[in-house]
Amino acid sequence: MDAAVFKKAIDEIAESKGISHEAVVEALTEALQRAYIKYLGGGDDAVVEAKIDEENGRITLAQIKNVKKDVEDDYLEISPADAKEDADEAMENLQDDLKDTKDANVKADLKDLIEKVQAAKDGIKIGGTYAMYCPLDELSKLTAMAVKSNLRIKIAEAERVALYDVYKDHIGEMVTGTVEKADDRSVSVNIGRTSVELTRREMIGDEYFKVGDPIKVYIQEVKDVSQETKGPRGPQIEVTRSSEGFLKRLFEEEIHEIYDGTVVIKGIAREAGIRSKVAVYSTNEDVDPTGACIGPGGSRIQKIVSQLGNGKDKEKIDIISYSSNPGLYIAESLRPSQVLGVAITDSEAQPHPKAVAVVKDESLSLAIGKKGANARLANKLTGWSIDIKEESEAKEEGLAYVTFEELQKQAEEEKKARERAAYAQASKEAAEKRAEEVQALSVGMAEKASASAPAETTPVEVAPVAPTAPVTPVTPSVAPVAPVEEAKVAPAPAPVEAPAPKVETPIEVKTTVSLEDLEKNLEEEKNAPHVESDFSKRPNFQKGKNRRPHQISDKEVERVKPTDVPNGSAMPIYSQEELDAIAKEEEDNEGKDESSEEVDIDQYDKYYDDNNK
């Protein structure tokens, strides 16, 4: 047959059934083997072999017999002589068919089969096996129908295995399907890749559905094929609408505080179609758990109730505030009745501890509920066996119980104690963590210091810095400048242990000339000839006249007040003899023409040039 057509047919089957290509090939192989065994008619203990060559589009069938000298069961065994005779007969028939056919594909199949028969003939030996090949065209029409039936069964089994692999990870999830078939006993729901059966027991009360209605179901179990008790056609995926898990998923869909974890569902007790109790707890003190579930004006809880069946009687839902205090939790679980107090009669550690709830005389029927549903759900939710008594009966029996207000105070005190314990534990853990971090940091610093520190630590000495020499002006007409403060040298740091600190190289301040040299230079400049420079172009200068610059007034240059300089922190620029000489020189020059004086301005520029200091 055409290999491309053969492969395409297998792929189409695999795609339509949602199974793999290899699963279809395996199912076809098993179907051929079962049909061939039935064709042989000697019993199911026959050993047959079916091979599918997808590359060439060929299918070969053979019965495998053991080669023995003395044959006891000719259905399973064959003698060497009979095996050779069978091979010769098969070769002759195949050769005749090869001569008569003109189809290239058929010729190729016959040639391949002739090679296999020849190989089987060559391998005949006592103790071995012999393959008796059978051409497909020799099979009867009944055999072909048997192959088809077996293939359908095997593909269905492979489909269920594939569905198990898909849905086994979706246990506990809700899916939306479509009603395909509905009757009084069950509803068939298409959930995508398969259809599941929703029995009446798994529905909510007296709800009903029509074909085509959307429906939400909860996957509560996915059975393995090997675990099914009803055979290969039995249900594999079990769905329900009456379980607590279905109600929990509805709460998660409609209330985002539950979905994001702000409100936690601590327990659910449910009698589908009658009443349910849901205990909730808030991880955020600013969020009221019961208010978040009920919603503004009961809008949220009404959306959930509307999805709990379409029967005459709607299922009621009680939102209970969870408490770690057993007495308060028991009192809350009996809502909508108001509990006056609770008496704990057994230890909580027992399997079924007992407690007594006291209610008002007129509230006993409300606490028990219709057909005892409220009391049963309270017992199931809390795990306590609750006995409900009226207030008058409790007084007659002298029952000592804790009032509801006292239970609330106890719960508040327990909450504060837990918060203090949690805070203390968190503080302890934080302190331990900080200690570990400090220890790790110390170890790291010690290792780094030991790796970088020298073998011996030598005290570092800092050389003293020479004081800055005072600056003497060139001309006495310049106002005195504030004395320069002597440079102070910081004391050398004390020797330190490893790791040795990084010591900066001391900066030595040097002066260009000493004070004596500076005074000598000034004296020589007085007697030296003056050279005209660019300074003659400056304002208030008369060209060609030998004169000093005009004396700078106090308005032009603000003098430094003596108070600005600390006492004893600087040395005077002029000595008393120099000041007397300046005053005398000014007296001698009072009557002279200043315009005739020659001034060597370059000398001033050279002296005040920063680059030559």
Structure keywords:
single chain, alpha+beta, 5-stranded antiparallel β-sheet, 4-stranded mixed β-sheet, 16 strands
How many distinct helices? 17
Total DSSP E strands: 16
Distance between the termini: 110 Å
Q: What is the spatial order of strands in the main beta sheet? A: 7-6-5-8-9
Poorly predicted regions are: 456-506, 532-549, 559-566
Q: Indicate the overall shape.
A: flat
The portion of residues forming beta strands comes to 15-25%
Task: From the alpha carbons, calculate the radius of gyration and give it in angstroms.
Answer: 55 Å
Q: How much helical structure, as a percent, in the residues?
A: 25-40%
Write structural notes for this entry.
There is one protein chain. The chain is 40% helix and 16% strand. By secondary structure, the chain is α+β, with helices and mostly antiparallel strands. The chain has a 5-stranded antiparallel sheet. Strands 1, 2, 3 and 4 form a 4-stranded mixed sheet that branches. A 4-stranded mixed sheet has the order 15-14-13-16. A hairpin with a 3-residue loop joins strand 5 and strand 6. Helix 10 runs antiparallel to helix 12. It is flat and about 155 Å long. About 13% of the residues have low confidence.
